[in-house]
Amino acid sequence: MAQPITETHGSDLRRRFEKSKFQGLVWAIARTLLLLGMAFIIVSPLLVKISGSFMSLEDVYDSSVGWIPRRPTLEHYRVVFQFMNYPRSLLLTTLLVTAVSLLQVISCTFIGYGLARYDFPFKGLVFGCVLFTLVVPPQLLLVPLYINFRYFGAFGMGPGVNLLNTPLPFLLMAGTGTGIKNGLFIYIMRQYFKGMPRSLEEAAHVDGAGPFRTFFSIMLPAAQAPLLVIFVLSFAWQWNDYFYTTTIFQAKNDLLVHRYLGVVQDYMLAFREEHGFDAPFEMSTMILNTASLYYIVPLLALFGFLQGRFIAGIERTGLVG
Amino acid sequence: MRKMSMDTRRALTGIVFVLPFVIGFIAFFLYPFILSLMFSFSDVSVGASGYELTSVGLENYESALLVHESYVRTLTETVQSMLANVPAILIFSLFVAVLLNQPFRGRGVARVVFFLPVIFNCGAVLLIENYDFLTNTLTGGSAASPGSEIVTSLFYGLKLPQGVLGYIMNAVRAVPDIIKASGIQILVFLAGLQSVPESLYEASAIEGATGWETFWKVTFPIISPLIPTMIVYTVIDSFTAPNNRMMELIQNTAFRGMGYGVSSAMAWIYFVVIAAILAFVVWLVSKWVFYQE
């Protein structure tokens, strides 16, 4: 029942085509504005920090100064650098976070692979436990974990070993896939390995490779995309964590988080002692913004370096099913 | 070793792979989990040679719910904002994912920008930022977005029921928070959108479906299985969100307030409430999700 293309039909088609072209243009403009607006909301905290970090005290008081400082200064960078003990705290934090996230990547991949490829008794239960660790809020475990590490290995009977203020709690938890949001990483790796063809392992088996050889030399290299994703996520979350870090390192104040959280208080106190207690709260703003920049710029640099592969990787992980 | 059947050997290998987790789960999850339950019913005193528990029955729960001056308020506020934000985050991230799935110039940059909050807008930085003077003056406060008044007045013009209006108002006010909490969800939905087979779109175009119809009849059913997962993820994410005041309250109660026992009781009430809501919502949503089998 094909309709013959009549004159009216043709012009109707053309009108529809032109209308849709016009609609497309309107939509493109609307989309651009929307995206720009949302991008501004996302990036503005960063811009505020950059702007605030260069402002001098007069600029903060001067209501005619908006985003661009009129009397820019590098003084805050110098002061905060000292207050944060930056080279040392940066080095320590980088070491700790790198070690923890590498351990998390290894352990979660290992566990995820076992769950994806092998059948053993209580497998469903183990996977259920993985998901359960995610649903329980960290608030619930904070105090007992703190006590557990304070009297480690004693199970409530004796003094045990005090692991607080050492990196061991983090390393132990990362190595066993129970660190920050590790259930999610195990889940991602399990889904990814489930989606990989079995023929790879069968070929390795025929060639005489054992299960661990197969895992390390065949499966790991094939899982680069999700490995990178969980590495970046684990690094970023560990870097940003203050909940566990400030609890486990209650005494030692040489990590970036402590330095960062402390710098505002310390500096404010020092400032108030110098200028009396009338010193307005706004004083802290330049210090705060400069310290924030010191805190997040290493992370942003890492993400900037890996972002292309990271975004592509997320699309290939098993999260989507 | 030789006599072992293939299946037994494979099962043993599998157990070796998950063994680290089983050990970690027992030592760093199950044990603290049970300990926490015990703490919540006890008075905990900590000394150099260990800790001691004295059973106090439900006293800690009473202190948390009846004595503590702000726990109940914080609990209702946290749960309320979670209930309001989760649907808003899901709708918003699906919307952005649809936008980012269209071909246009600068799409790659846009994807990176929407993921940025996952990297730098969390944890300690955001915790402190809420108190910053400059952030509040330049962006009109963290709770309000630029131009939110315009949107607000726009919606007042529409004659909507009070409840709907209130919800939209709060959502508009929370726009920055919602955008910042959507990073992962956007990327996951985006990946889901890209997995929709092109042939389905071609078929619906030939049948004469509009873009709107295609979205609801083709795209949405295919990505709907992602929704329960994303609900769970968003709720989990809200536990550790820096604007979750429950976290601060529990930490402060433990180390500077009424002690470990009350703090554990607080955490348990929070957990049970959230778990109940989560179970109910996921059950509800899964009944309605379309599975392509």
Notes on the protein architecture:
The complex is a heterodimer of chains A (321) and B (293). Chain A has 321 residues and is an all-alpha fold. Chain A has two domains: 19-73, no CATH class; 84-320, MetI-like (MetI-like fold, Orthogonal Bundle). Helix content of chain A is 74%, strand content 0%. Chain A contains 14 helices and no strands. The two termini of chain A are 42 Å apart. The model of chain A has no long low-confidence stretch (mean pLDDT 81). By secondary structure, chain B is mainly alpha-helical. Chain B folds into two domains: 6-55; 63-286, MetI-like (MetI-like fold). Helix content of chain B is 74%, strand content 4%. Chain B is built from 15 helices and two strands. Chain B has helices at 6-40, 59-67, 71-101, 107-120, 123-129, 133-138, 148-157, 162-173, 175-180, 183-194, 198-206, 211-223, 226-239, 245-256, 260-286, and strands spanning 42-47, 50-55. Chain B has a two-stranded antiparallel sheet with strand order 1-2. The two termini of chain B are 41 Å apart. The model of chain B is unreliable at 140-147 (pLDDT under 50). Classes of the chains: A mainly alpha (321), B mainly alpha (293). Chains A and B meet through helix 1, helix 4, helix 5, helix 6 and helix 7 of A and helix 1, strand 2, helix 4, helix 5 and helix 6 of B.
| Global geometry of chain A | flat
CATH superfamily of the largest domain in chain A: MetI-like
Which class do the helix and strand fractions of chain A yield?
mainly alpha
**Could you give the order of strands across the largest sheet of chain B?**
1-2
* Order of SSEs of chain B: HEEHHHHHHHHHHHHHH
Number of domains of chain A: 2
What brief labels describe this structure?
heterodimer; A: 2 domains; 14 helices; 74% helix; B: 293 residues; mainly alpha; MetI-like fold; 2 domains; two-stranded antiparallel ribbon; 2 strands; globular
Give a short summary of the structure.
The complex is a heterodimer of chains A (321) and B (293). Chain A has 321 residues and is an all-alpha fold.
